[in-house]
Amino acid sequence: MLVQIHTDKNIEGGSRFAEFFSNEIKNELARFDEIVTRIEVHVSDENGNKSTPNDKKCVIEAKVEKKQPIAVTATADSPEKAFFEALEKIQRVLDTTLDKIKEH
Questions:
Q1: How do residues 79-99 score in pLDDT, each as one tens digit?
Q2: Rounded Cα–Cα distance for residues 11 and 13 (Å)
Q3: Which 3-state string (H, E, C) describes the chain?
Q4: Alpha-carbon distance 44 to 67, whole Å?
């Protein structure tokens, strides 16, 4: 599974940031290796310099073999919180997708 991390200009996306998120994804989504070919994570700050509640957004998109890509979105006060909320959502969606694949 290929993991790509993207941040906008308002999020400090150093190599430690990307490495941490990549490791979390690989650990949490390892059981989906057979159906997921690529995961893309997009982290952004919706308001730039302004600080407002829930202005950090994380979109996680999973490319599933022989299916349309699946994307989930989460917002929170920090990039990390938004990431972990989105990670929980994508796990639930992938669980459902895997169950449907196994039924056929």
A1: 999 999 999 999 999 999 888
A2: 6
A3: CEEEEEECCCCCCCHHHHHHHHHHHHHHCHHHCCCEEEEEEEEEECCCCCCCCCCEEEEEEEEECCCCCEEEEEEECCHHHHHHHHHHHHHHHHHHHHHHHHHC
A4: 26
Residue recorded with tokens 């290796």: 33
Reading the block at residue 40, the tokens are 């893309």
0.85 surpassed by pTM: yes
End-to-end CA distance of the chain: 23
**Contact call for residues 40 and 24 (beta carbons, < 8 A):** no
Would you state the structure tokens that stand for residue 67, as one six-digit string? 């299916």
